[in-house]
From TrEMBL:
Residues 60-93 are annotated as: Disordered. It comes from the Eukaryota. It comes from Physcomitrium patens (Spreading-leaved earth moss). Belongs to the universal ribosomal protein uS4 family. GO terms for molecular function: rRNA binding. Residues 84-93 have a biased composition (Acidic residues). GO terms for cellular component: ribonucleoprotein complex. PANTHER family: 30S 40S RIBOSOMAL PROTEIN, 40S RIBOSOMAL PROTEIN S9. Gene3D superfamilies: RNA-binding S4 domain (3.10.290.10). This is RNA-binding S4 domain-containing protein. Residues 23-59 form the RNA-binding S4 domain. Keywords: Ribonucleoprotein. Coiled coil: none annotated.
């Protein structure tokens, strides 16, 4: 019998591998003739996600990475305007 910790780790890994990668999202609707063709289109910078050209076939648009520069600046500006803590200035020292 598999322990619950190992089972949870295995489930997490299997769910991670199910996240759609950009190459799959290009191939499935018929934008590319094959997975290889989808990878080539992506590497040749023919594919955009939002306003950004993406050249990494393993890019996951559902990944939800850390916020970009503009989002970080907007958050910092709104915190300053509301009188929030200046933790960012303390971290830089």
């Amino acid at each position: 019998m598999v322990s619950s910790k190992i089972h949870n780790e295995l489930s997490w890994f299997l769910n991670l591998s199910r996240l759609p990668q950009l190459e799959t999202l290009v191939f499935e609707p018929g934008m590319a003739k094959s997975i290889h063709h989808a990878r080539v289109l992506i590497k040749q910078r023919h594919i955009m996600v939002g306003k950004q050209i993406v050249d990494v076939p393993s890019f996951s648009p559902l990944g939800g990475g850390r916020p970009g520069r503009e989002a970080q600046n907007l958050k910092a500006a709104s915190q300053k305007a509301s009188g929030g803590d200046d933790d960012e200035d303390k971290d830089d020292e």
